[in-house]
Amino acid sequence: MFRIGLFVCVAFSVVAFATSLPSPAAAQIQKVVGGTPPAPAPIQREVTFAARPDGYSGSLVIPLGAERDLASRAQPLSRQDRDAIARALSSARFSYGARQTLSLRGIGSWDRILIVGLGEGTDLNTVQSVGSVAGRALLNEPGNVTVLASGLYAIAVGEFATGMGLGEYRSDLYQASRRAATAPGPTLIVSGVSDAARALYRGRGRALIDAMAWTRDVSNEPGNVIYPESFVDRARAAFAGIPGVTIDVLDVPAMQQLGMGAILGSGAGSVRPPRILVVRYTAPSAPAGGPIVLAGKGITFDTGGISIKPGANMGNMKMDMSGAAAVVGAVLALSKSGAPVNVAAIAALSENMPDGGAIRPADVLIAMNGKSIEIISTDAEGRLVLADAVAWADAKLQPAAIIDVATLTGAVGTALGEDYAGLFSRHDALASQIDAAGRATGEAVWRLPLHHAYAGRTSSTIADIKNSSDSGPGAGTGAHFIGEFVNRETPWAHIDIAGVAWSGPTDQMPAGSNGWGVRLLEKLVLDWKPVPRGVGDGGQ
User: Fold this and answer.
1) Residue 88 lies in a domain
2) Is residue 311 part of a domain?
3) Which residue range(s) make up the domain with 349?
């Protein structure tokens, strides 16, 4: 207790003192205690494609689905090197299963040879994940990397290269070792279909890598760096110069004029005012009609407000804006690749803090669509910001569909663990498309019910609806609440990513943000099939 109190007092004194210093000293102290440094530069390898290796040094990657693949895929190597690799595989009893690895050193002139298992009959998502394993395994190898990918189809080569880029992501944003690191050597992908693979990688793969890195960066950043206004700044920088993109931002006066009492209430306890960021991307060849709207919960830090959270692991709440990061990241991937789509990302951004202006339990807020909300828990704030966001999208954009993404409830993690996000929808055709996109990308969803009883659980004696039920299915009642702010004829789905948004380190990614949802949403929009408007045919 004493140590915490002392730290707070010292930090306050430093901030107060900084205001009296002349520039640039004041600016320097402000940067240390609460500024917004620019995004750290990525540390990733440049990727090229060719029909044959241009050297035989550095690190070598050989993806193999079976023992028989070695002879053809490693053809550019000397017989002596191939025989040595074959003996090592046999000695290690390598099974060639997907994502299995074997690291070898001391063969030929290579610093390291990494064998990665592809498995047999492998789908493209698995190929990408195998590439991620390779990219992460070679993260600290300083030299060049050569990948022997002959015999793989062009689309598989492109996915492997994309996976390597995803695996190279680093979350050590402010470590001195990162700042001091020199740029790693390039990666050369050797393939008989190098021209086609290069086109696929440059057309879509590179855009996905950049979008995933952006999403993870803003999610991993601390709350003193990413808050509503700086999130907007980071998004503007990411989309600068991309054709077909327009950005609009609703500030507090604009929200007040629109009657957005829900999101304004959620941010009332913070000195950092809320924002609604709208990023629209419309390609010249996009189909006619309104956009597919992707709305994300963007609580840049969540203390729980007056209903304050326990201190343990509260630091993870810097990632309570993972839904907003994912929807913006998905549109970034689509726009950078020039996809022929019409899509909009809405990031509902707020910081949930417990000062004297914060909302209290039993307060009543009025959302943009006129619905009144009784506050039961100020820690059920994500649904408040989404209520105004989806109501605005429904009223202003004539959407083809609205899909909201949120780290909404701990209950969904209890139900589904880290294996699935929770999917809720009133529209079967929309839910089926989301499920298919999740299966194709490995970002799996599991559909949960929207039972008619949830209306009773969220009924209020003083307002139209309350923001939290007293007990029962928390993930379901949270989804029901958001759905009450969307016209029932509008195709709508809610994806609760609280159990999958971040994790500890794996063989494919470092600890921190998983960037979950970018790939699913990008695939969903690319493969979109119009969903008929109607009152909804499922979810009960």
Assistant:
1) yes
2) yes
3) 209-526
